[in-house]
Amino acid sequence: RLVELSMLYEVPIEPTNWTSLRQEVAKFSPPVTEEARQRFISLFSVVSPLGPALRRLHELRLLEQLLPAFVHARGLLQFNNFHKYTVDEHCLHAVEKASELDADTGWLGDVWRQVRRRRRLLLLALLIHDLGKGYEGDHSEVGAQIARDVAPLFGLDDDESEVLEFLVLRHLLMAELAFRRNVDDDSLVLAFAREVGSPEILRLLTVLTMADIAAVGPGVWNQWKAELLSDLYNRTLQFLDPDANDRGVDLKRVEISSLLGDVDASEPLARLVAGLPRGYLRSYEPKRVVEELTKLTNLPRGGQFIAVQWQPDTSTISITVGLRASPISGVFHRIAAGLASQRLEILSADIHTLDDEYLIDHFRVVDRDFVGPAPKGRLSEISKAVESCLENEVPSIRRRWNPFATEMQAAVVLPPRVQVDNDSSVDATIIEVFAEDSDGLLLALSRTLYEHQFSVRSAKISTYLDQIVDAFHVVDFDGAKVEDSVRLATIRRALKEVAGSGGNSKASS
């Protein structure tokens, strides 16, 4: 309790009192109770210097009673030319390096401040990340087992336990990629993004990587390493959250406003432009944005438009669907069904809800049944298929037969990853799916969300080589963020099952 008060009020313990305390603890070591462990872990959430408190507890040998795995690390030498400290000192130093980011005004300080409620997990991971050293086997794998043992000691739930284990097991991953690989290779960054799974975990791993390196010894962390880590962080974030990079967006908004001319600020068109999501602005040219929004705001209530166009620059087909005050439920999975019914391969998709009244969806697809520009009749056929799925019950999807079309590739080489992020957005739950691409997978995922009563507010669907990275911003059918942990665990399992089956269980039923 004395150490706790010293930390909370940032007041040093009076030397005479500290000497007396050390003598008493040496004579009689107090038992570790559940209350003591909970008070200990609560220190990791306090915005105060944690390092001095941990050092005090370590000096009293109370830290190793609260955290038994620390016994082995006390004074443990590291026989290499890299580390300058013993294992216990390195771990304590790493916690201090992360805590120092409170005063950092650079990009790492920004990342640290976004960690929020996961801060205690990150600091706990730093405290135990190297405790697997000195045993037989890979120290990261041994450390992961230690993390599994530590989690129940402090009452961590399943999600927190999984994050803690991942951070310890893969604590070297980001450094190896940032400093030893060419991060201009998108396939490497995509594989890393797939393993990380969400912007939240990326932020945790980024800070952990910096703190781990900085705690190796004086001068080990430098500006060059910071720039390399920043490059990997931003490149990975583009896979996990394409809306994260805001450069140029404000200039586009100004250009769009100039195209509007004398449109009154109270008009729906001006309101939509003022509140456009940055991802929408980033993805499309100002002239196209104005044309689409003009068409959208001219719709009557309950109206819709569907635009299907051949894009010669990319040899793809773009499908834009706009709706105003639509009574239709499950719009996203209905559109996906219409496209799947035409045997179209979806390369990317995004959906935006504007002003709580308008909905606009963009899809970019490849038509396997045609080589070269799609004829007008084919574009009309696609438009009618989407319209039919919006107006009627979604039909069973059968594969279009064409003896000259390429065959679909067998799906699922790597197991799918599904991450739920409830921290990054205030208004929505973010569900991210990494999986091998397969026929009808997007339809199966979107239908699964709908069947579990999740409404897709916005989405970013991307295909890279043979993998898909789907980020769904979802709410419940009442428009509220989903906080129920049981419900989130259920949808996570359901999406993993669908992604693992390549979408076959739902898309063709």
Report the uncertain regions. 398-412
Task: Give the class from helix and strand content and strand pairing.
Answer: alpha+beta
Oligomer: single chain
Q: Count of helices?
A: 24
Average the pLDDT over all residues and give the rounded result: 83
Topology diagram in text:
Blueprint: H1 2-9, H2 15-27, H3 34-42, H4 51-59, H5 63-66, H6 70-73, H7 87-99, H8 107-114, H9 119-128, H10 139-153, H11 158-169, H12 173-180, H13 186-196, H14 199-214, H15 223-240, H16 249-260, H17 268-274, H18 278-283, H19 286-297, E1 304-311, E2 316-324, H20 331-341, E3 344-354, E4 358-367, H21 376-391, E5 417-421, E6 429-436, H22 441-451, E7 454-464, E8 467-476, H23 485-500, H24 504-507
Antiparallel strand pairs: 1-2, 2-4, 3-4, 3-7, 5-6, 6-8, 7-8
Task: List the defining traits of the structure above.
single chain; alpha+beta; Hypothetical protein af1432; Alpha-Beta Plaits; 50% helix; 14% strand; elongated
